[in-house]
Design goal:
alpha+beta; globular
């Protein structure tokens, strides 16, 4: 894997990029240096076959019921002029190609197993620390004709550091369209640490031909966001790896789905994790099927956000411990 790769969008990048490994020490070094790592044989045998089969079944059923979410279309308009997502944009009628599946925690034990997998403990924990929660667990089925997503960072909502007394962008006013200071930040102000990390479980072979995830190695250390429309000069790399590989990457890393130029569907299960003081993309505690509660380990419950962290996520006076999907609520009371 340590060979020179090229992209239609960039000049050749440095030959030294992460290669497939089963050595966790090497994987952690790759995370630190490049912002991503590739773990070989993370899923094998029946575990891989079951997860892939369950994803395909779920995807087909969601299409049958008109519940499928589509993106990656060449002419698909998904954002308005303010940089916010449009309602009803993610359909085949609006030009969507790739299929996304959301809230996988509800859609199979094999997906819940990915949330508390030992490799997640080791590698996401290396980035975020021992306590972190699931932000979203989704699948991306990249299909022929899907266009490249474009590079982005999953910490797009993290305000940039500013000097005392200088004007700043209000945090609640940030959008996915980066401010100029985010694209070209002042390096003297330092950079934000990672508070987001991702896992991509490759359920089919990934290659540049079928839209393998695009990354810019080392970009997690730049403190910058990629320019949304000026990406031709970036040294983009697309890992090529067999089904069963786990790709873990820092949330600050510039990345995005690649263009699918032909061949079969490319299947991946993508989990985003965040530190427990941040809001989750998917409302796991509200969205979880309560019928699954009795089947879940305490580790999984905590990772979905049911564990109170330093009084955050509590209900009433529960400053520690675990909340439940159906908590006791104290309503309006009067004495006597």
């Amino acid at each position: 894997m340590r060979n020179q790769q090229t992209s239609a969008l960039a000049e050749p990048i440095a030959a030294d990029v992460p290669e497939l490994t089963e050595d966790l020490g090497r994987a952690k070094q790759d995370l630190d240096e490049f912002g991503f790592c590739l773990v070989a044989n993370a899923l094998t045998g029946e575990a891989l076959a079951t997860t892939r089969r369950r994803l395909v079944e779920q995807a087909e059923a969601e299409v049958e019921r008109g519940l499928d979410h589509r993106d990656g279309g060449a002419n698909q308009a998904i954002m308005d002029e303010s940089g916010r997502f449009k309602a009803h944009a993610f359909t085949t009628a609006n030009g969507g190609v790739n299929q996304r599946l959301w809230m996988l925690a509800n859609k199979g034990a094999c997906f819940r197993d990915l949330i508390e997998h030992p490799l997640v403990d080791e590698l996401v924990g290396h980035i975020l620390g021992t306590e972190f929660i699931l932000s979203t667990l989704s699948a991306n089925i990249a299909k022929p004709g899907g266009v490249r997503m474009g590079l982005h960072t999953d910490q797009w909502w993290m305000p940039q550091p500013v000097r005392s007394g200088e004007p700043y962008k209000r945090a609640s006013e940030l959008t996915r369209r980066p401010e100029p200071s985010f694209v070209r930040p002042d390096p003297a102000l330092g950079i934000a640490p990672p508070v987001v990390a991702n896992t991509m479980w490759m359920l089919s072979d990934f290659s540049p031909q079928n839209g393998a995830t695009e990354v810019v190695p080392g970009s997690h250390l730049s403190g910058a966001h990629p320019h949304p429309t000026e990406q031709d000069g970036y040294p983009i790399f697309q890992p090529e790896a067999p089904a069963g590989t786990l790709m873990v990457f820092d949330g600050r890393l510039w990345h995005g789905t690649g263009a699918h130029a032909g061949g079969g569907d490319r299947l991946g299960a993508l989990a985003t994790f965040c530190c427990p003081q941040f809001r989750q993309q998917e409302n796991q505690t509200l969205g979880l099927d309560p019928g699954l509660w009795s089947q879940m380990s305490n580790k999984l419950k905590a990772r979905l956000g049911f564990k109170v962290w330093n009084a955050y996520g509590r209900i009433e006076g529960e400053f520690g411990g675990m909340i439940t999907p159906e908590p006791e609520r104290i309503g309006e009371l009067k004495p006597g």
